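Quick one: structure for this chain?
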Amino acid sequence: MHVQLVALMLLLGAFAAQAADDKGMSDLFKKYDQVMEQKRIELIDEVFSQRFLRESGGKKDLVEKIKDLGASAARQETVLTWRKGLKGEVYFARLREAYQEKSKAPDTGGSEFIVIKENGTLKIDGTISDGN
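Got it. Here's what it folds into:
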């Protein structure tokens, strides 16, 4: 009986952690969309890790790059999927347009990101692909 209670507690703890990370990941990519689509540059520190900002030439350069992107076409509904990496607090996230998710095509397209926990908050630390 004691072993079953311990196993149940571990299982419930894992589900609670997954739910918290789901919400954190969803919040992160909502802010990412606000930065990239609505040009809300004040959210950059909440979206990108310090390392990503440094490697992008600094916050000032990244802001200029985002402003230069211009307006995008009509925004499609997106689907976010993610998985935890094998070591530490590293995650891999994929943002795809909803129609791509429903198609029977091979697993292609979408943008892939490396996400880390920095000071207890999920932040984008790099990209694997940009969907183009």
